[in-house]
Amino acid sequence: MIMFGDMLSPFSLLVLLFLALVSAAGGQSYSNITRGTTLTAGGSPSSWFSPSGEFAFGFFPADSNSTSFLFAVWFAATSPQSVVWYANPRSPTLPPHATVLLTSDGRLSLRDETGTERWGAGSGGAVAASILDTGNLVLAGATGVLWESFDEPTDTLLPGQVLPAGASLRSRLTDANFSEGRFSLMAQADGNLVLYPLALPTGNRYDPYWSTDTSGAGNELVYNADGSIYYSLGNGTAVPINSGLNYPPESFYQRASLDSDGVFRQYVYPKNSSAGGGLTWNVVARRPEDICHALVSHGPGSGVCGYNSYCSSDGGQNQINCICPPEYSFIDQNNTYLGCEQSFVQRCELYEQSSFTLIPVDNLDWPYQDYEHYTNVDERQCGDMCLQDCFCAVSIFWRGGRECWKKKLPLTHGRIGSYVNRRAFIKVSRDNSSVSVPVPVPVPFEGNHDRRRSIGVAGAVLLGSSGFLNLILIGTVISMIVCSRRNKSEKQRSVTELNLRTFSYKELEQATKEFKEELGRGGFGVVFKGELPSSSGSTKLVAVKRLDRLGKMIDDDSEKEFTNEVRSIGQTHHKNLVKLIGYCHEESQRLLVYEFMSRGSLQEFLFGGERPPWEQRASIAMGIARGLMYLHEECSVPIIHCDIKPKNVLLDDNLVARIADFGLAKLLRTDQTRTNTGIRGTRGYVAPEWFKSMAITKKVDVYSFGVMLLEIVSCRRNLETETETEEVAEDAVLVYWAYDCYRVGRLDLLLRDGEDDRERMERFVTVAIWCLQEDPGLRPSISAVVRMLEGGVPVAVPPDPSTDIQSLRQ
Ligand SMILES: *[C@@H]1O[C@H](CO)[C@@H](O)[C@H](O)[C@H]1NC(C)=O
Ligand SMILES: *[C@@H]1O[C@H](CO)[C@@H](O)[C@H](O)[C@H]1NC(C)=O
Ligand SMILES: *[C@@H]1O[C@H](CO)[C@@H](O)[C@H](O)[C@H]1NC(C)=O
Ligand SMILES: *[C@@H]1O[C@H](CO)[C@@H](O)[C@H](O)[C@H]1NC(C)=O
Ligand SMILES: *[C@@H]1O[C@H](CO)[C@@H](O)[C@H](O)[C@H]1NC(C)=O
Ligand SMILES: *[C@@H]1O[C@H](CO)[C@@H](O)[C@H](O)[C@H]1NC(C)=O
Ligand SMILES: *[C@@H]1O[C@H](CO)[C@@H](O)[C@H](O)[C@H]1NC(C)=O
Questions:
Q1: If you ran DSSP here, which 8-state letter would residue 150 be given?
Q2: pTM
Q3: pLDDT of 61 strictly over 80
Q4: Which domains are seen in the chain, by residue range?
Q5: Which residue ranges traverse the bilayer (predicted)?
Q6: How far apart are CA 529 and CA 520, in angstroms?
Q7: How far apart are the CA of 128 and the centre of ligand 1, in A?
Q8: Nearest protein CA to atom 14 of ligand 3, as residue
């Protein structure tokens, strides 16, 4: 709505309005604000266009509900529209019904709904205010321009605009909050062009993270009308800031903005689709090249990201990610610059080393600001020293120099990237329920590779389908693995120390009402529901697994072996594993007693009825990956599961994924020493190396996890039908189909959920394809999988696993 100022009669106002509207070009109205004319936030119109229609100025909605506004200049023809200037950066948002008025004495005055002036421009004498086709908002007097927005830049420069010595750009706080942010680009009076992080709210500068290192008088930053950006030195030299002139203004809208993440980027937007690049804002230049790498300092300030978080440019330089360490979370998800806090309590007066554990993350560091420094130490010592110290939040190990640094909160200037070459040990609380567990030691750097080995012990043939057996036995010699081997010295723990109960067969017979209610049946035996009396007088539900009695193996050695293996399973404690409560070993009877999982298996959850919400599925996938990471890398004796599949993942009351049946491959091996052909695992989930004479490593679990991850994302079974025939229609095999969809860019065929979280779903699929690589060496370790799923590191385009597929199809 246009309101009239005090000097105009209603009649002359109508005439003016009419003239303005008839002068509209292409349906857009544009004009100058003359003295007495007012625009109102939320009114109609609340903005005017430049003659070309490319720029608009007026009231720009600052949120999707139009509950607040900016007085701004923006690109009107692009999608999204992009604000290039706004008034009063200290407090830019205005309520509905705010007005802007060219006063009778020729000043531009911005007033809130009560009429109080919030901001003003010019010192009087202007006869008109107008937006030019350059995006410059000018106040024109009788003799020329009296004031222009190009002289008071906010976070953006436009072609034709100059940042003279002494002037600066200031970033926004976040992309959506236009208040003064944490970074500044200054064309300093001393002739240097510098990017600084700033302290909020005062704005004092911390150590710079980029500069031209120039000096002299008269230097200025020029955004030439031809699209080039350079720093023009007083002596006539031009220091280029972007690469050149490839984006002529006739064909591209363009701007250069100091973004809220501290990067100065040049953006272009093709004016028509034939110019190429897609109808979107594309980044064509930036300074600094990699801000995560560039912005580090001994001094104060949190760095690019907030305290305790770390900076990742792995997703591409145009979207810097700030990430919380494991078991930390953002204080405010919408304002990640506020940093992360621990999701657990760490206080010295209550400190118990055994309540904490370490999560290793490669190539992560918070450089500087350490409070202890050790030399000539190994990785294990570096981790242990942090565990022993109640102040320590993180220790950083540098393998090359055998050095270790301890860090306290808050952590600053964190970054992850291949250039870092450090391993961080993040100290986190163990699950509260498992406080009595022995402390695991960190896994050595190269552990994943060194431990690959093949031990010629055979396992049971556990495959249900004869067709599949035929397939796998074609001319291959198959060696069986031992999922883990431990050294004798680690076996010296008493059963009571582990809180493992021994049960008599009779007890379990009673608990299960003589094995009445069968819960499931798997490769190792049958599982029954049971009820145990508990100390409080109530009862406790359990799952009792009666192991198949394979072979006759009742010699002393195998008995000891059984007890040892059960203890080793009993030592594992992780919130994503099903907990072993106790066991029974009487004569030839072997039974294991587990906690009862009320929500059944992932198989039923995924395929049993209605498609579960994506959020639940995603968190289940993360839980499984973390549980596997614990088995592979964090428990004192690494355990390969060998039979990862949805049936072996159970869900507890809170729908937390719990891996079941781990450690059993090892447990039963004593029964099968005579066989030399055996494949552990289940049809559809087994890694190709099972069919070849190749070493079986942890990567077999990564493969199976990849298959399951595709199932979780798509809610489809890998093998759509349980056919007995060898020939499975190719599109019924999810793995093949998923890669085909990925290759041709049609993941939408695979993912049926709404568009909401598409990026994350696609990331999960990409990670799954990495897990499905034929060459186990190409598959990521499970900890890398966890990091990729979390979004902490970029996921590269995976190689074609089709050779794998070919060999399986033969
Ligand atoms: C708007 O003001 C500019 C600068 O004062 C002037 O050149 C132009 O003719 C005016 N346009 C209209 C439509 O009044
Ligand atoms: C938008 O409006 C809805 C409904 O009035 C309200 O619930 C929501 O909080 C508003 N959002 C913002 C960002 O103001
Ligand atoms: C923007 O951030 C400032 C500072 O934290 C805050 O006071 C203001 O309310 C925020 N504005 C919006 C629109 O969220
Ligand atoms: C201008 O000054 C810069 C450094 O300040 C120097 O590198 C350059 O050579 C000078 N150019 C001329 C033409 O003197
Ligand atoms: C689109 O861009 C091309 C090349 O930049 C130009 O030749 C053509 O005239 C443009 N078309 C329109 C409709 O603007
Ligand atoms: C973040 O913003 C979204 C939408 O703007 C809102 O629904 C949500 O409540 C906000 N979260 C927090 C923690 O403020
Ligand atoms: C774990 O311990 C913390 C601190 O003692 C407590 O706040 C939290 O509720 C506990 N969590 C569980 C699951 O018991």
A1: G
A2: 0.57
A3: yes
A4: 2-151 (2.90.10.10), 158-288 (2.90.10.10), 310-432 (3.50.4.10), 493-595 (3.30.200.20), 602-809 (1.10.510.10)
A5: 455-483
A6: 9
A7: 7
A8: 177
